[in-house]
C-alpha cells in the first residue's frame, strides 16, 4: 500500500472541516465559542500511543462507523473539566451521563458530515457509548494493536471557559485505504470532488508532480515513525551525557499536519533553544526548544559557575553546544537507515515567544508545501525540572523518495 501525501492532505482537510462543524454544534449546545486548535493524522504504534496518553483521565462518548467509512470515532475531554461542561448544560450535574452522551452524539455527527458529503455515501453511527477511561483506553478500539496506524486527532478549545475537547477517529481499511492511496470516491459529488482536488493541490504546494512523487510506502512510513522515536532517545541520551541529568522521552510521534498549525502548538510562552537547517535527503528544519525556565536550568547545569544572566551569552553558548550534539544524534539514525547523507547548519540560538521561534522555519518550508510530516518529541529531565520539545520538519518529496528506496531494500 502506498500512501499519497497529497491525498492524505485532502483527508486531513476533511477532518479539519469536520472538527469545525463539531465546534459549531458544541457552541450551539453549550453557549460558549469553541475554536479548532489543530487537526492532524498521527502515525504511531500502540506502544507510542500508550505512552502519549499515560496519566490522562477522560470522559466522553464513542461511536462505531459503518457505510461510507468504517471504524470508530471518539469525543473526549479531561475528567477534571466535567463540572465546567455540566454548568453549561440544562439540568447540570443531575444529568451528567445523558448530557455527555448527547454532547458527544451531536459533535461526532457534525464531525462526520463532511466525510459523508465527500464520499457521497452515508456514514452510519452506532448508538453513542458513554465511557470513563484512563490513559490510552480513551482511544478507538484497535489503536493500540498495530505496529503503525493512522489516527486522526482534532482539539477544540473553548475561548471563555476551561473546557477543551478532543476528537479521535481511527478509520478501518477499505474506503479510507482508497482515499489515502489517491483514489477518488466514485460516488462523490462534483463539488465535493473539486474541493478535495483543491485540498490535494494545496497539500502539494500547487506544483503538481513536477518535484517528484509524493506517494510513500505505508510500511516505510511506519519504519520512519520508529526512526523518529529512536532519534528522540538518542537526543535524550545526549542531554544526559552533557548535563549529567537523567533524561527520558515522554512522547515521540510522527504526525501529518497543516504546517500553519505548528507555531500555535508551541504556544505563546517564552521559549529558548536552537534551530537548524538540514541538508541532504531529506532536507528540512529542526528545532530544539525549552520553555524559558527550563532553558536556564539546563544551561546552568552545564556551566562550571552560575551565569551572570540566566540566558545570557554563556547560557546561549551552552544551549548551542547541546543543540549541536542532540541534532547530530537525532538525524544520524535517519541517514543510516535511509541510506542517505544528512548534515545540518550551525546552531541558531532563538529566544522568543514559542510560536515566533518556529514560524520562520514553517514559512520557508511552506513555500514548497502546505502540509508536512512533523516529528515532535518531549524529553523530560530528572533532578532539574526541565522539558525539551523537538520539532523536525522534513521536505515531504525528499522524504517520500528516501522512504521509497527504503521499501526496495
TrEMBL record:
Membrane-traversing stretches: none
Database matches in SUPFAM superfamilies: CheC-like
Keyword Hydrolase part of the UniProt annotation: yes
Start and end residues of each CheC-like protein domain: 96-129, 314-350
Cross-referenced InterPro entries: CheC (IPR007597), CheC-like_sf (IPR028976), CheZ_family_phosphatases (IPR050992)
Keyword rRNA-binding attributed: no
Molecular function terms, GO-annotated: hydrolase activity
Biological process according to GO: chemotaxis
Key words, A-Z: Chemotaxis, Hydrolase
Name this polypeptide is given: Chemotaxis protein CheC
Organism listed in the record: Halorubrum rutilum
Amino acid at each position: 500500500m502506498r500512501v499519497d501525501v497529497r491525498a492524505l492532505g485532502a483527508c486531513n482537510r476533511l477532518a479539519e472541516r469536520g472538527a469545525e462543524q463539531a465546534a459549531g454544534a458544541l457552541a450551539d449546545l453549550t453557549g460558549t465559542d469553541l475554536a479548532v486548535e489543530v487537526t492532524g493524522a498521527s502515525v504511531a504504534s500502540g506502544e507510542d500511543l500508550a505512552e502519549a496518553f499515560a496519566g490522562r483521565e477522560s470522559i466522553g462518548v464513542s461511536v462505531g462507523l459503518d457505510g461510507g467509512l468504517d471504524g470508530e470515532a471518539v469525543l473526549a475531554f479531561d475528567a477534571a473539566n466535567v463540572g465546567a461542561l455540566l454548568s453549561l448544560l440544562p439540568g447540570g450535574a443531575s444529568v451528567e451521563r445523558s448530557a455527555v452522551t448527547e454532547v458527544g452524539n451531536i459533535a461526532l455527527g457534525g464531525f462526520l458530515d463532511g466525510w459523508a458529503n465527500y464520499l457521497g455515501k452515508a456514514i452510519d453511527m452506532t448508538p453513542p457509548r458513554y465511557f470513563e477511561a484512563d490513559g490510552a483506553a480513551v482511544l478507538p478500539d484497535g489503536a493500540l494493536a498495530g505496529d503503525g496506524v493512522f489516527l486522526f486527532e482534532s482539539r477544540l478549545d473553548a475561548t471563555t471557559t476551561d473546557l477543551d475537547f478532543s476528537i479521535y477517529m481511527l478509520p478501518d481499511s477499505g474506503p479510507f485505504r482508497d482515499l489515502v492511496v489517491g483514489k477518488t470516491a466514485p460516488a462523490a459529488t462534483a463539488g465535493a470532488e473539486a474541493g478535495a482536488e483543491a485540498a490535494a493541490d494545496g497539500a502539494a504546494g500547487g506544483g503538481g508532480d513536477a518535484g517528484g512523487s509524493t506517494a510513500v510506502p505505508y510500511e516505510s512510513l511506519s519504519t520512519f515513525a520508529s526512526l523518529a522515536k529512536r532519534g528522540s532517545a538518542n537526543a535524550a541520551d545526549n542531554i544526559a551525557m552533557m548535563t549529567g541529568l537523567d533524561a527520558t522521552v515522554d512522547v515521540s510521534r510522527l504526525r501529518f499536519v497543516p504546517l500553519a498549525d505548528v507555531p500555535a502548538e508551541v504556544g505563546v510562552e517564552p521559549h529558548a533553544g536552537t534551530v537548524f537547517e538540514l541538508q541532504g535527503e531529506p532536507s528540512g528544519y529542526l528545532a530544539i526548544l525549552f520553555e524559558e525556565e527550563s532553558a536556564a536550568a539546563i544551561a546552568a547545569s552545564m556551566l562550571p559557575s552560575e551565569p551572570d544572566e540566566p540566558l545570557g551569552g554563556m547560557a546561549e553558548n551552552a544551549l548551542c553546544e547541546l543543540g549541536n550534539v542532540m541534532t547530530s544524534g537525532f538525524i544520524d539514525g535517519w541517514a543510516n537507515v535511509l541510506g542517505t547523507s544528512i548534515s545540518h547548519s550551525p546552531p541558531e540560538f532563538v529566544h522568543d515567544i514559542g510560536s515566533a521561534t518556529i514560524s520562520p522555519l514553517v514559512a520557508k518550508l511552506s513555500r514548497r508545501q502546505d502540509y508536512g510530516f512533523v516529528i515532535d518529541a518531549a524529553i523530560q529531565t530528572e533532578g532539574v525540572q526541565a522539558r525539551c520539545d523537538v520539532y523536525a520538519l522534513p521536505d515531504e518529496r525528499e522524504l517520500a523518495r528516501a522512504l521509497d528506496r527504503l521499501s526496495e531494500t
